[in-house]
Amino acid sequence: MDNSQANHYDYIIIGAGSSGCVMANRLSADPDNRVLLLEAGGPDINPWIHVPVGYFKTMHHPSTDWCYMTEPDKGINGRRLQWPRGKVLGGSSSLNGLLYVRGQAEDYDRWEALGNKGWSFKEVLPYFKKSEDQEDGASEYHGVGGLLKVSNLRLRRPIADFFIKAAEQIGIPRNPDYNGATQEGVGYFQQTAHNGFRWSTAKGFLRPAMRRSNLTVKTKAHTTRILFDGNQATGVEYRKDGQLHRAMSAKEVILSAGAIGSPQILQLSGIGPQALLEKHNIPVIKDLPGVGQNLQDHLQIRLVFKTSQDTLNDELNSYYKQFKVGLQYMLKRTGPLTLAASQVVVFTKTDPDMTRPNIQFHMQPLSADKPGDGVHPFSAFTASVCQLRPHSRGYIEIKSTDPLEHPAIHPNYLSDERDHKVAVESIKVARKIAGAPALAPHILDEFVPGRQFQSDEELLDAAQKYSQTIYHPTSTCKMGHDDMAVVDDQLRVHGIEGLRVIDASIMPEIVSGNTNAPAIMIAEKGADMILGNSPDS
In the Cβ-directed half-sphere of 484, how many Cα atoms lie within 13 Å? Predict the structure, then answer.
């Protein structure tokens, strides 16, 4: 095969993350499709990727994480936050917290109500089920035989059971399946793991597809821009081994670089707000003012409670205990190393008159200042709470024409005053759970933020001081038909031929929960749109 033939494909996928790996599998299932998958990061060979609790090692490490930082944010007292994103096969599914959460049916019905035909919950549920291999078996809401392993937690601790009972005592119903008929309630998380190992999209979707001769996967291949002939996307330019390369597409280019990478690549390629492109002397292919706008994320307020009850802090506070934990994992695939980012989930309301939950708790039977840091030298648990559907909106924009320079990330957390009340009330709900009879006898003190924060003004101050991202950036290439929409409901970039965006950036509004499962669903549906298939095919 000569060089010109070798660089020609039917489909080129940019980004081998949660969505890109799914796309690579589904598009290459037809042997007549020549598919190229480009990933800026490396292969998923770091052993910590495959250990569930390994996110403590892979987050903030430049070999696996883009190590993004936000710009100083007024809404959180001018602080800059670290925004981990996967820079490896599997993307963020290779270093996330493994939590499998779909969101609320109303989220998707809302997408359709905004004019996005085919995105109601009834129409996306088959795609969730198509991916899924649910440990508990098939049901109206769950599938088996899919490529994504979904299992129950292998680790439970008394403090978590006390927390669940306390939530029930304040009126939050027990819910054994928040991905089922209703989301509201308290229970244990489901996770993307199998036999004690992480189940990333690289492992579930990409690994089996890489045996196909019609799929080419290039790692450490950093996309610099999309190529066009007029308004037709014709290929991709990328940098690998210090050299610039080009690959041409006969059918479509699919951008699956995530909520940060996708708008950045579009802007570098001449698709975005005209003023921004002209500022950097980038020829304008299409003036789309919404590229990089509408940024949404879940901001978590972390509460840490010291306890008289032993927690995982006590199981991990010496090298000898860590050795024992490691040995337990090696021999039995059980114990603390199988821990997802959290054990207990709560979906509830800050106002009982609301029709559906507006906040979510992630409860961990341990505490640390941040992932990667050691656990605190005392018994404690963490109860993080986030607003599910924030009103605040941020934006992302390139700083220069250098594809290697990170874009400016402006989350604009708590910039909408409607989010202030939810932040304050969510802390009150956390304290109400902590004060319930099942949990209160085991709590010695509120370590973070501390009982000195009492009035609503003080609680808002605490939220601004102690909040962190929960790593759910979305919506920067939103789907829709208004002036700020970037893609239509077929995920095609407005005004451009042969180019789609298929990842979490297309969400018009963030889902009410963790974003990995929806990103996989979006790719399943997007692949069927391209191939003309139904969800059962």
Answer: 14
How distant, in Å, are the alpha carbons of 206, 512, 525 from that of 532? 21, 29, 10
Positive or negative, the CA dihedral 504, 509, 510, 512 is negative
Within 436-484, where are the H helices? Answer: 456-466
H/E run at residue 250: strand 243-255
DSSP 8-state assignment for residue 45: -
pLDDT digit string (tens) for 26-55? 999 999 999 999 999 999 999 999 999 999
Catalytic annotation present for 472? yes
Give residue limits of the domains in the chain. Answer: 3-531
Which residue of the set 376, 420, 472, 481 is catalytic? 472
pLDDT digits (tens, 9 = 90+) for 85-110: 999 999 999 999 999 999 999 999 99
Q: Report the alpha-carbon distance of residue 53 to residue 65 in Å, rounded.
A: 16
Exposure of 369 in the CB half-sphere (CA atoms within 13 A): 3
DSSP 248: E
Q: How far is CA 292 from CA 276, 310, 395, 409, 469, in A?
A: 11, 45, 5, 9, 18
pTM comes to 0.97
CA dihedral angle for residue 534, residue 19, residue 214, residue 147, rounded to 10 degrees:
-70
Q: Does domain 3-531 have CATH number 3.30.70.1150?
A: no
Distance between CA atoms of residues 386 and 100, nearest Å: 17
Spatial contact of 35 and 374, defined as CB atoms under 8 Å apart: no
